[in-house]
Structures are given as C-alpha cells and as structure tokens.
Amino acid sequence: MRFDLNHMSDSSINNNRFRLDCSGTILDLSARPAIMGIVNLTPDSFFDGGTYTREKEDTDLKRALQAALEMVSIGAEIIDVGGESTRPGAAYVSSGEEIRRIIPFIELLRKHSDVLISADTYKAEVAEKALQAGANIINDISGLSFDPEMPEVCGRHRCGVVLMHTPTRPGSLQWSQDTGTLERDIVQEVIDFLGRSAEIAGRHGISSIMVDPGLGFGKSVAENFQLLGRLDELHALGFPVLAGLSRKSFLGQAIRKCGEKIPSPSRRLNATISANTVALMKGADIIRVHDVEAAINARSIILAMRDAMEEML
Questions:
Q1: 217, exposed or middle or buried, with CB in 10 Å at 0-12, 13-18, 19+?
Q2: What residue ranges define each of the domains in the chain, with the CATH number in brackets?
Q3: The predicted structure's pLDDT at residue 11
C-alpha cells in the first residue's frame, strides 16, 4: 500500500489528533508542541546509559525520580522511560529484565506526579506491566510489528501509542555515515510503513496515535536530514508527529570538522538544539529529548515567533 500525498488536503487531516486520550489522561497538543523527557534505566544507552544504575545494574530509583521530577518542574509534559537500549548493535534484553528495570520506577513516579508516562518498549508483556503500573503511553519503536500481542494490549488499555519506523530490530541495525545521493524516497517509505502500522492500531481500537519517523534508525545521514527537512509531510497520515533527534550520531556527523572524529554525544547539545528548532518549525507536535530546558527554550522561541506573525494577520 502506498499513501499518495498529492491527493491529501488540509481538510482531510483530523484536527482531533491534537487532543489524545491516553488511558484517561488527555495529552493536549492543540496550543503548543509537547516536550518528552527521556529517562533511560539502562547500563548501555548511547548517551545516558548507566546514569541511573548502581552495582549489578540495579536502578537508582531516588536519583531517577529526582531527574524525572526536575524535568516535569521545568515543563516536560511526558516522561519516556526506557529499559532496553535501542542503539545500533544493542544487546537484546528479556521482558523479565526490562520489567525489573522500569516497573518500580513507573510506580514511584506515578505516586509523586500526574505527568504523562510513556514506556519505551516493543514487548507486549512489558507494556502490560507498565500500563498497570501507571503508564499512559506505549512508545513502540517497531510500529507494532515486533510483537503480535502488542496491539491487543494497547487497545485494551486505551493508551496512547507512538508508532515509529524502523527497518529491523535494534541488534541488527547498522548506522551509515554515507552522506551521498539518495537512492530511495525515504519519506514515502516511512509514510507507507507508518500508514500500515496505523491501520493495525485502528483495527484494535487504538485511537490515540502518534507517529515517529525513526530518525537515526537504519537510515543514512542524508536520509535522516531529508526526513527532518520534510517532517511536515508526515502530517498527511492524520496524526501528531514526534521527532526524536536528541544527541544522535547523524547530528554529530553534520558538525564534524574535517579530519576529526565524530563528536561524542556529550558534545552534540548545540546540534540537538538546532535540529529540534528545525523540527518544531517543520510542525513537530512532540520532541523527545534528554535536555528538557534547552527544548523548552527552543519551543518558546518558536511560539513567540508564531504569535508575532499571527498578530500581523
């Protein structure tokens, strides 16, 4: 199936997408984009792996909670909790281990805050436990394609669902430094994939859908930047668009000086702020970030510009 953007009009996009019922809590995107703050409870995530773990990989719940609550106080509307790294070549984590890592934290965060909680998982068993513990959203990097039980779980809980595009499983992903010509229409490929995922979601009663092009997942540098530059085209699917750009390798590739290595994730903050600003200008409804304050500031600039331009009309 191929979604033809040339036959889509603004009137065909359902504006109700801007108010999503996520397990009884409303995510309101009608006035401004939302900021999703990242808390990775993993020892091996590419940027913050090990930040909230102690010896034997036990989660430092107090430290993780403090970080999440600080994100909320700054202005994050969603906290995205991950228990398995999805960087290229990452090791597989069992459902049991993932549950051990994230469920106590979700329960603790829910006791201390009514913030929307997203569980970053593609496993139905983990999603079930997370939603029972108080999560509102399942952020599935596979677009419901890895675990056949996931659509039923999400539909039954009436949760919000992020459908992301990825060409293969994390352990098989390869990051390409190719900056040359584009041999495929990556935007259309992503739209086709996400359209099929949305149809699966709809058949299982899932109505609160967000779509994510999967920037950095199995795409060349050139393809990632094409997706960023054409991010607004994903709205043709009729759903809010999430952009996850934070400190990713293709940003490091773009800012690398001639003859030098790609800057480490710790040196990609300025590039991330720039990319998030572009994403917001291209219509991103949610941006997923490690650095919440920087994202809030970028959003504030975009909103101020929008308000000033509207006053001239």
A1: buried
A2: 33-311 (3.20.20.20)
A3: 34
Tokens linked to 207:
């109505």
Question: 282 catalytic, yes or no?
Answer: no
Known catalytic residue: 63? no
Among the listed residues 17, 87, 288, 299, the single catalytic one is 288
Give per-residue pLDDT as tens, 21-79.
Answer: 999 999 999 999 999 999 999 874 443 544 656 544 556 889 899 999 999 999 999 99
8-state DSSP, 220: -
**94: which DSSP letter?**
-
Q: Please, what is the angle between helix 61-74 and helix 292-311, to 10°?
A: 10
Distance in angstroms between the alpha carbons of the first and the last residue of the chain: 40
Q: Annotated catalytic residue: which of 248, 268, 282, 299?
A: 248
Q: What is the pLDDT of residues 245-258, one digit of tens each?
A: 999 999 999 999 88
E strands, 157-271, are 160-164, 209-212, 242-244
The answer for residues whose C-beta is within 8 angstroms of residue 55's C-beta and 6 or more apart is: none
Strand partners, 209: 161
The β-bridge partners of 211 are: 163, 241
Long-range pairs, 90-96, Cβ under 8 A, ≥24: 90/44, 90/170, 90/171, 91/44, 91/171, 92/170, 92/171, 93/42, 95/123, 95/125, 95/126
